[in-house]
Specification:
Layout: E1 7-10, H1 16-27, E2 31-36, H2 41-53, E3 58-62, H3 68-82, E4 87-90, H4 105-133, E5 136-141, H5 145-148, H6 154-174, E6 179-186, H7 192-198, H8 201-210, H9 223-230, E7 241-244
Parallel strand pairs: 1-2, 1-4, 2-3, 4-5, 5-6, 6-7
The chain binds nicotinamide-adenine-dinucleotide.
């Protein structure tokens, strides 16, 4: 299989896109380190069981991506248990909509802490071992919001634009070490976040109609592109951000 012999660490892996990616990478042969907030323990256990059913190993740790102390400890434990992290998927994210003119500082900071600083801290914790092995694959889950900017998601869009920029700069800073860094920009994916954001069946129907493929996304739609970026199939691709949105946005 494409990813056999590899270990992938996925953040925010207890549900939604992260859970789909973790299981999808396992189905393609990788052992998986799933991480998510402590409060997600029950969901994480379910994902772990599903991964183990595929015959792959699964290591499961509570991890808040805003805490450097947590990150350093979990990366050390996961590295020792698995033998090394070959693939990192920075997926953890939050979205609480609000108009920019009304956003409070706490919400602004919370979005940047998880969606932007989280990418920086987890990536920096995993990079030294990738550099030492002269190989690695990093996939950041950004958003088409980070390209376009969306009303009531200005703060979130700014964090995702940051993730896209971090992807480009990391790619240039670590390419000489055999590491690629790419981003996926999902469109509207029907997870907890996606559904909360749309709010109603009417909105789901409207955006389904806008999409070229006449439907919104399922978390599973993100698996193929992630496997591509995580595998040798993409060995000459780095610093890129791929829209995976069913044809809802074209830039
Ligand atoms: N659903 C969409 O329409 C959509 C569109 C574009 C991008 N995205 C991005 O995809 C990623 C996954 O989103 P989703 O739709 O599956 O949402 P979700 O809310 O279902 O899952 C997000 C996960 O991140 C975890 N998380 C939140 N804060 C965390 C923290 N501090 N530390 C560690 N984990 C934390 C949550 O516990 C949860 O498991 C996010 O980065 C999101 O911004 C989603």
């Amino acid at each position: 299989m494409t990813l056999s012999g590899k270990t992938a660490l996925v953040t925010g892996a207890s549900r939604g896109i992260g859970a789909a990616i973790a299981l999808g990478l396992a189905e393609n042969g990788a052992d998986i380190v799933i991480t998510d907030l402590e409060r997600q323990a029950e969901d994480s256990a379910g994902v772990q069981a599903a991964i183990e059913k595929t015959g792959r190993k699964c290591y499961n740790y509570a991890l808040d991506v805003t805490s450097k102390t947590d990150i350093d400890a979990v990366v050390a434990k996961a590295t020792e248990a698995s033998g090394g992290i070959d693939i990192l998927v920075n997926n953890a994210g939050i979205l609480v909509p609000g108009l920019l003119s009304e956003i409070d500082e706490k919400s602004w900071d919370a979005h940047f802490d998880v969606n932007a600083k989280g990418v920086l801290l987890v990536t920096n914790a995993v990079l030294p071992q990738m550099r030492a092995r002269k190989a690695g694959r990093i996939v950041n889950i950004a958003s088409i919001a980070g390209r376009q900017g969306v009303p009531t998601q200005g703060h979130y869009a700014a964090t995702k634009a940051t993730a896209i920029t971090l992807t480009r700069v990391y790619a240039q800073e670590v390419g000489m070490d055999g590491i690629t860094v790419n981003a996926i920009c999902p469109g509207i994916i029907l997870t907890e976040m996606g559904k909360n954001n749309l709010g109603s069946q009417e909105a789901i129907d409207h955006w389904s109609d806008v999409a070229a493929l006449k439907r919104l996304g399922d978390p599973k739609d993100i698996i193929g592109p992630t496997v591509f970026f995580a595998s040798d199939q993409s060995q000459f691709v780095t610093g890129q951000s791929l829209n995976v949105c069913g044809g809802i946005y074209f830039h």
